[in-house]
Amino acid sequence: MKIAVLGGDGFVGWPTSLHLSDQGHEVHILDNLSRRWIDTELGVQSLTPMDSIQERTRIWHQETGRRIRFHLLDLAKDYERLKQWLLEIRPDAVIHFAEQRAAPYSMKTDRHKVYTVDNNVSATHNLLSALVETEIDAHLIHLGTMGVYGYSTVGAAIPEGYLPVGIETIGGETVEQEILYPTRPGSIYHMTKSLDQILFQFYAQNDGLRITDLHQGIVWGTHTEQTRRHVQLVNRFDYDGDYGTVLNRFLIQAAIGYPLTVHGTGGQTRAFIHIQDSVRCIELALNDGPKRGDRVKIFNQMTETHRVRDLANLVSELTGAKVAWLPNPRKEAAENELVVKNDQFLALGLDPITLRAGLLEEVVDVAKKYAYRVDRSRIPCVSAWTREIAQRVERDP
Ligand code: USQ
Asked: Is this prediction's ipTM beyond 0.90?
């Protein structure tokens, strides 16, 4: 297949591009390199030393003989060039990762809120509109988030995108219907992913676009089979307070002797998936797309759920790290349950990689190897969800 990977220079986009290229697909990356600019804005860098995208693709060709083409383009801003590029490539599938993906970054200031909404919503809408306009019948796969559901506290399992409801008609009978699971995003970033869902629903129904939306949990780990092949193919690893995700942050903190930064009581339960499973799920979804006229296909892309404090305790037992209980800069439930259905990927043959001490140690090893690159002052989470929370965190850091 000819596959366009939008946002193919990012944390999940890069290993996905390598994985699909390795399987013999013709991969074209489109990226505006905004993630690298945001590193510059924040004054941080990936824990792992990352080469330029051109250098990465050159090494991939040198190692495998396979080519991945890179095109520099801003999906949210350059609509006309996007159409031209699609007409040139004529992809069979488009994988859309090209969005600002950090909740704390999206809540940092009003400017960051505006940027995240403009960028994410325009990127998705430009892509949908361009597919209709160019009449390219590609399967669109979008990397969404479990966060659109809002981590219910009621204890019922979250279904894969659709909720069956009984609606009482005027005549008094009950009619069964499936609706999009009501969204309850907890950040501006998660809200943009909720808006994406509506855009997808409209374009599938109005124009017959074939769309799969993957509601992914928190990714952990660094390497995939392909990124291991050469030191310069290494994936990025974020540890800072805006982009670092919780388990990877705990692992690097343990490696450098920094107390594990648990927010509040650490009672938040979240869904998790290893980076290797994440790229495998995208491959599975690619081969099982909806037909024209079908509703949007939604998968829950996660393999297990964990409570944040349990993760901290696990990492602490493994490494001897201390745990710091910090005021929570986010507005979120202090404690929540989370049960999630992921039957569709299991039925397609996913054999989940679950959190095991051996695997955690492996990430600690990566962290130790590059520990000299860590700027400890960038570890605290400083983006607060509201002014009131910001004042509270300042009073009691
Ligand atoms: N947390 C801590 N300590 C930390 C960092 C985070 O206790 O040092 C807590 C947070 O308060 C939160 C939980 O850990 O309750 C998860 O935070 P996170 O930063 O790991 O994840 P999140 O902000 O939800 O976002 C990440 C990705 C996002 C993806 C999402 C999937 O950045 O792109 O969509 O995970 S999910 O969480 O399932 O919505």
From this structure: yes
Boundaries of every domain in the chain: 2-237+272-303+339-353
Helix (H, G, I), strand (E, B) or coil at 155: coil
What is the 3-class SS of 237-294, one letter each residue? CCCCCCCCCHHHHHHHHHHHCCCEEEECCCECEEEEEEHHHHHHHHHHHHCCCCCCCC
Task: Give me the CATH code for the 2-237+272-303+339-353 domain, please.
Answer: 3.40.50.720
Contact in structure between 26 and 2 (CB atoms under 8 Å) = yes
What's the rounded Cα separation, in Å, for the pair 328 and 390?
10
User: What is the chain's mean pLDDT, rounded?
Assistant: 96
Task: Read off the pLDDT of residues 332-376 as tens digits, 9 standing for 90 and up.
Answer: 999 999 999 999 999 999 999 999 877 888 888 889 999 999 999
Nearest C-alpha neighbor of 288 from the set 301, 275, 276? 301
Specify the ligand 1 atom closest to the Cα of 268. Answer: 15
Residue 19 has pLDDT above 80, yes or no: yes
Which residue's structure tokens are 């705990």?
Answer: 250
Pairing of strands 174-180, 162-168: antiparallel
- Which residue's alpha carbon is at the smallest distance from atom 3 of ligand 1? 262
Would you list the DSSP string of 292-340? TTPPPEEEEE-SEEEEHHHHHHHHHHHH---EEEE---S-S-SB----B
- Spell out which residues line ligand 1, taking CB within 6 angstroms: 101-103, 145-147, 217-218, 245-246, 249, 261-263, 266, 268, 270-271, 308, 328, 330, 332, 381
